[in-house]
Design a protein that fits this description.
This protein is mainly α and about 400 residues long. It has 18 helices and five strands. The strands form two sheets. The chain has a three-stranded parallel sheet with strand order 1-2-3. α4 packs across α12, α12 packs across α13 and α15 crosses α17. The longest helix has 29 residues. It starts with a strand and ends with a helix.
């Protein structure tokens, strides 16, 4: 089975990336025909103003991949922008993509609202509609088959329309000031590339006639769009693409050092590049059970981020750690010291290997340019078929 997946170069990889993506890739490269790419064009979707670190971030990602065990002899490892066929297929698929498919994509809407901090505004509008939808339905004079479902739909869409109206200057602007939201920032973020990036993702997969894409549940809407576009192209121009299916991946729950989702933006991530002293400092300052105030107090490991990490890194003694924590025999400092030793043992060889790789960046690029040439040979064959199907020269 041919599998395609990519990752944006936004900086060094952290443990969340490994357990969420890379660990699964390592398994897949031994079982399937895999194409893994550095999605540097996708990095421009929201970071088009700040490209100064794009090349170095790409190199960091390359080094992390190889240090973690991705093997260019088992999988095709390449850089997206070095395979121009992605851009050509993106253009052609864009010609047949209804704009509404992109605007209604829930991932697009969620990302836009998160970037612009508009959830609070939208929720405020929705609260104002609560209890008034019956009156709106009466005014519309229509018969509703599913009243509750229709009310929820009406409330959601009206709130979205009011947010848009606010940015179009149709509603007083004081609300924007109160929320510290910039109209300029809204328009500079809400770009053509931002709207259309699911089409580029589709091109990334269909350029290789990918049969499957490893995804989490939150990415299913993107893949469904790819499947819809493959069907639409095949219906219009003849059978050309397979419909890529999702490979849902189960990932262990590894929170950040503060208990929230591990993220660079939260400052709670542990990186494979972290030196021993830095790693020790992060582990020893991790949040623990707030109800375990003294060393001998019984703990509640089910609510402790440190124990969540022990489940991953100390699986062979997790039950014992849980018992000792609950009985009060194990204090938080000792618990974190044990965790540090496990995490350091896991990270140390990767850290040293990535240092070696980054000491010769020319060799890094040679490996990925070679992979990009392999990818381009496959993608160019696909584009030849696409052009013929669409009666293009």
């Amino acid at each position: 089975m041919r599998i395609v997946s990519g990752m944006r170069p936004t900086g060094r990889l952290h443990l969340g990336h490994y357990f969420g993506v890379i660990r699964n890739w390592l398994k897949l490269q031994n079982e399937h025909e895999c194409y893994f790419f550095v999605a540097d064009w996708h990095a421009l979707t929201t970071g088009y103003k700040k490209t100064g670190e794009l090349k170095s971030n790409t190199e960091e990602l390359m080094a992390d991949w190889l240090a973690l065990g991705l093997d260019p002899s088992k999988a095709v490892l390449f850089v997206q922008s070095l395979v121009k066929e992605h851009a050509e297929l993106y253009l052609l698929l864009g010609m047949l993509t209804p704009k509404s498919w992109l605007e209604l994509n829930p991932t697009y809407k969620d990302l836009k609202y998160n970037l612009l901090k508009l959830h609070e505004l939208k929720d405020a509008f929705k609260e104002r509609f609560a209890g008034r939808t019956d009156e709106l339905i009466r005014l519309l004079g229509v018969k509703v088959e599913e009243p509750e479902e229709f009310k929820a739909f009406l409330t959601e869409r009206l709130a979205e329309l009011l947010v848009e109206a606010l940015f179009e200057g149709l509603i007083e602007k004081e609300t924007l000031k109160r929320l510290n939201v910039s109209k300029k920032e809204f328009y500079e973020t809400d770009t053509y590339g931002f709207l259309g990036y699911p089409v580029l993702q589709t091109a990334d997969v269909l350029a290789y006639k990918g049969e499957a894409v490893p995804v989490g549940e939150d990415q299913l809407p993107h893949l469904e769009l790819a499947r819809e576009l493959a069907r639409r192209f095949n219906r219009l121009y003849g059978p050309t693409f397979p419909e890529p299916k999702p490979l849902l991946t189960e990932t262990p729950k590894l929170p950040g050092t503060d208990g929230r989702k591990m993220s660079k933006s939260y400052g709670n991530a542990v990186y494979f590049a972290d030196e021993t002293d830095e790693l020790r400092k992060k582990i020893m300052s991790m949040f623990t059970d707030p109800q375990k105030l003294r060393k001998n107090d019984p703990g509640h490991p089910e609510r402790c981020p440190v124990f969540a990490w022990h489940r991953v890194f100390s699986a062979d003694e997790a039950e014992q750690i849980e018992r000792e924590c609950k009985s009060g025999a194990l204090g938080c400092v000792e618990c974190k010291r044990r965790l540090f030793e496990r995490v350091e043992a896991f990270i140390a060889p990767v850290r040293e290997r990535r240092k070696e790789l980054l000491s010769d960046r020319g060799e890094l690029w040679r490996v990925f340019k070679e992979g990009s040439e392999k990818a381009r040979q496959v993608a160019s064959g696909t584009l030849k078929q696409v052009r013929e199907a669409m009666n293009l020269p």
